[in-house]
Design a protein that fits this description.
mainly alpha; about 0% strand
Length: about 375
């Protein structure tokens, strides 16, 4: 019996050993799968997995996505956009393009630093992540407008207006400008009317439209808008004034005079009417009438340089440089950077034989004129 048991044990023992080895191997594979790809299959029972405390301490060492975005936003608000951009671009490299809120903040930072192309692209990605991100929608429209793509900006600005019809006057203004650039004048009038809270079909709405058209260098369209405003509201202030400026621009002094006179009857306390009347009379060579009109303008408003400059010009034409100096020197004190004032001062001094003073004023006028020349910069 003992001999038989020994023989059986010798046969069973290798099988048991192989069974135990297979068991250990399977156990190691399962543990490796549970622990994840970063855990070695040779780990032993003594190497315990990290505890919750370990994970918390590790996370505390590295700021969260929300904390980084908040820190970058704070730098942006404190006037450090370049530092904010550096933080956000670093976060993009580590957390990826789709990190929640990252593209929105990047777009704002790029926009504020004039980097309009990457700003528009960032806002586009932010909208893909959250189509209801109203600020990104609006800012994308503004970026497209500044990039010279008003037609492309319109759908985004229209969406903002649909969501918040009365919330943002700037969006309505830019939307109106986009309509202007796209020759959609009726839509532009409605947008500007909403901005200024006037009925879209009122005389005031047409007058506002005319003003915007004037600023957009579309004088003919502006004149038509002013005429429409008078059709709706015949006694509307400033409509005849706008038409007078249009005819003055066209060098039609006779028609301009008629419009300014009608404006004076409607709005006699407007100093600008008398300033323009003075200009019309000056162009027509009627210096006495020009001086009288400009005196009224100055009586109504002593804070504007225009009537003082015009008066100086009239008095020079009337061969009165000494009196002209009084008005021009006053204008120069109010606005030292006006090159026309210095030019006329140079003429007045020369008429009085004060050549050195005349040269100083002419030199000053030349420097101001050169400094005010438009300098175009490429879009970033």
């Amino acid at each position: 019996m003992p001999l038989l048991w020994i023989k059986c044990s010798m046969r069973i023992f290798p099988v048991l050993v192989r069974f135990l080895m297979i068991g250990f191997l399977i156990s190691g594979i399962v543990r490796a799968q549970v622990a994840g790809p970063g855990t070695s299959s040779g780990a032993t029972a003594d190497e315990a997995p990290p505890t919750l405390t370990d994970r918390t301490a590790s996370a505390a060492e590295k700021p969260s996505l929300e904390e980084t975005l908040a820190a970058a936003h704070q730098k942006l608000e404190r006037g450090n956009p370049q530092e904010a951009i550096a933080m956000l671009e670093k976060l993009r490299n580590t957390a990826g393009e789709a990190a929640k809120g990252l593209q929105h903040e990047l777009g704002i930072a790029y926009y504020r630093t004039g980097k309009l192309v990457p700003a528009e692209q960032a806002f586009a990605r932010a909208m893909e992540q959250d189509p209801r991100d109203m600020e990104s929608v609006q800012m994308r429209g503004l970026a497209l407008y500044r990039l010279g793509r008003p037609a492309a900006a319109i759908p985004f600005l229209e969406r903002v207006r649909e969501w918040t019809p009365n919330a943002n006057a700037d969006a309505n203004y830019v939307l109106g400008l986009c309509y202007l650039n796209s020759q959609r004048f009726d839509d532009a009038r409605i947008a500007f009317a909403q901005q200024f809270a006037v009925p879209p079909s009122s005389g005031s709405a047409y007058l506002l439209m005319g003003k915007m058209l004037m600023q957009a260098n579309l004088p003919e369209a502006a004149a038509e808008a002013a005429k429409k405003a008078l059709d709706v509201s015949p006694k509307l202030a400033l409509a005849h004034f706008m038409l007078g400026e249009f005819y003055l621009f066209k060098s039609d002094t006779e028609q301009a005079l008629k419009e300014f006179e009608q404006e004076r009857e409607i709005n006699p306390a407007n100093f600008a009417v008398y300033d323009r009347l003075g200009d019309v009379y000056l162009r027509a060579g009627q210096f006495q009438q020009a001086q009288e009109a400009l005196s009224k303008a100055i009586s109504l408003d002593t804070s504007s340089t225009g009537p003082f400059i015009q008066m100086g010009k009239v008095l020079l034409r009337r061969n009165d440089p000494q009196t002209s100096l009084l008005y021009l020197q006053h204008a120069e004190k109010m606005d030292p950077g006006n090159f026309m004032t210095h030019t006329l001062l140079g003429q007045a001094y020369r008429s009085l034989g004060r050549e050195e003073d005349a040269k100083k004023e002419i030199d000053a006028a030349s420097k101001i004129h050169a400094a005010n020349q438009l300098k175009l910069e490429p879009v970033k």
